[in-house]
Amino acid sequence: MSSLVVAHTRYLMIEQIRVPIGLLASALFPSLSMVVFVVPMAGDHAQAATMASASMMFFGATSGALIGLSIAVAMEREQPWNPYLRTLPAGPFPRFTGRMVSTLAVMLASVVPVLLVAALLTEATITPLRLLAGLGALVVCGIPFMLMGLFLGYVLTSKAVVAVSQLLFFPLAILGGLLLPPAHLPDFIAVVSPYTPTRGAAELLWAVTAGTSPDVVSVVMLAVWTVVAAVAAGWAYRRDEGRRFS
Amino acid sequence: MTVIARAAEITRRYGDALALDRVTLDIRAGEIVGLLGPNGAGKSTLINLFVGLRRPTSGTVTLFGGSPQDPAMRRRIGMTPQETGLPETLRVGEIIDFVSAHFPEPCDKDELLARFGLSDLIKRQVGGLSGGQKRRLAVALAFTGNPELVFLDEPTTGLDVESRRSLWDGIASFHEEGGTVLVTSHYIEEIEALARRVVVVGHGRVLADDTMESVRGIVGVRRVSFTADLPDPEGLPGVLGAERAGDGRISLVTTDPDRLVVELVTGGTPFTGLEIKPTTLEEAFLAITSKEAAHV
Q: Read out DSSP for A88-154?
């Protein structure tokens, strides 16, 4: 069984690496934002720079999880290769796991350029232990966004998903305070901000990396979002199965 | 011979459309079964049921005595993917490795590549292969897991004569080693080259399940057309189907054009513009289908 997981993961990773544009896309925007906004504005202030770096890393990682995964799933559903895979002697588990592991790899890879900019060009500081904890938090907080990506990928066509996933992700990133710290958010955004999944994730990341105290409502809301996204993804998967393979 | 795959009284609907209508078919170990029929006849639906992609609306499908939904049963089968959907970025060797990983005793990779003329292409990305090369790779994937039973859906569509021949040889040698094959095709030549048993499907029904020779006889129908004032052309002997065009031209489909013309002449009705043409496979199928409908 585990050798099948390896085979599927390897195959999906090769696809990712041979078409590296998806990887670049999720790493490029956050590292550019780092250079253009974070370095001149918060680069000299250790805690602000650390928090901004964490936000940018999470921004890149979740765009990979939400946008990248939803497009990959929607496109795969449209390929005749997909029904062929179902005729091979394996259940959905190896494929699903392979999909998750390769998305995680993209998420972690997209973090690297931001980390380099933060280390070389800003006063952001972090201990190795906090960095490790931060990466752990990044992976855990990425789960609801992967589930949202799966939901969109199984519900929409690949054409629709390109637009919808971005329409969903960018407002979420702004509302959650990833691009502009919560203190600088306009009032009407600050009201909804704690209820977005991005804010809960950001609160946790800031707490782990920069030692702030997290907002409880946001963290609880993140847990609620995770459950909702898991149910929605499961429903979308079964609905798609029933449509195409019953 | 042991039956290794069986469809018993299966009906499959897609919404209101009836794709298969109470079809019963046994596949026995060691035979090559040719599945012949026009597009939309139900060939692909039948294969999808055998490989576990779909479930019948009613009736049962068994594979090696078990359910096609059970991966353990599917370890003993092989199938061709559609070559248009092969993952473009992977290399030929990588795809074979990936598919091999699913089976307990896969084929030797080099031997498989050589058998399908792919040895030189092992390092090539699939996106860069020609249509014919992709087709050969797709067929090779059906044999990758050392299966007992392979499903080949239109295996040589789009291949040149030489590749088609070598593919047929490959299938024949698999059969000689005891393998079982279900092959579908539009082309009667392809089925003729491979199969001894032919199953003709149309409108979701099995129209004929017989030896190649007898099906060949049914399929060898001709279209006879002429202009005449004939009240009842369907009544002529051996007529499978009749059509009358607006200008009074009558078109008849028959298995025995010689006898039909003799009848026409001795009948004394004047006619003009007599033409006898071979029918396409499609027309022949339609003739069988309408005859079938007439019996019911």
A: SS--SHHHHHHHHHHHHHHHHHHHHHHHHHHHHHS-----HHHHHHHHHHHHHHHHHHHHHHHHHHH
pTM score, whole prediction:
0.80
**A167: helix, strand or coil:** helix
Q: Where are the alpha helices (DSSP H) in B82-160?
A: 92-100, 109-115, 131-143
The pLDDT tens digits of the residues spanning B116-150 come to 889 999 999 999 998 888 988 999 999 999 999 99
Nearest to B261 by CA among B278, B239, B283, B289: B239
Give the Cα separation of B77 and B138 in Å (integer).
15
- Spell out which residues of chain A touch residue B97, defining contact as CB-CB under 8 Å: 7
> What's the ipTM?
0.81
Please list the helix, strand and coil fractions of chain A in percent, rounded to the nearest 5, in that order: 85, 0, 15
Per the CB < 8 A criterion, the answer to whether A158 and A82 are in contact is: no
Q: Are residues B281 and B188 in contact, defined by beta-carbon separation less than 8 angstroms?
A: yes
Query: What ranges do the domains of chain B cover?
Result: 3-217, 222-278
Residue A246, classified by CB atoms within 10 Å of its CB into exposed (0-12), middle (13-18) or buried (19+), is: exposed
Q: How crowded is residue B225: how many other Cβ atoms within 10 Å of its Cβ? A: 17
CATH for B3-217? 3.40.50.300
**Minimal Cα distance from B50: which residue of A?**
A87
The label of the residue with tokens 């993140």 reads A222
A80 part of contact set with chain B, CB < 8 Å: yes
Residue of chain A nearest B144, judged by CA positions: A88
Chain B: residue whose CA lies nearest to A87: B51
pLDDT tens readout for residues A150-187? 999 999 999 999 999 999 999 999 999 888 888 888 88
A2 touches chain B (CB under 8 A): no
Q: Which residues of B touch A14 (CB under 8 A)?
A: 89-90, 94
Token pair listed for B275? 């033409």
B101 contacts in chain A (CB < 8 Å) = 3-4, 6-7
CB contact under 8 A, B99 and A88: yes
| Domain B222-278 top-level CATH class | alpha beta
> Is the Cβ of A82 closer than 8 Å to some Cβ of chain B?
yes
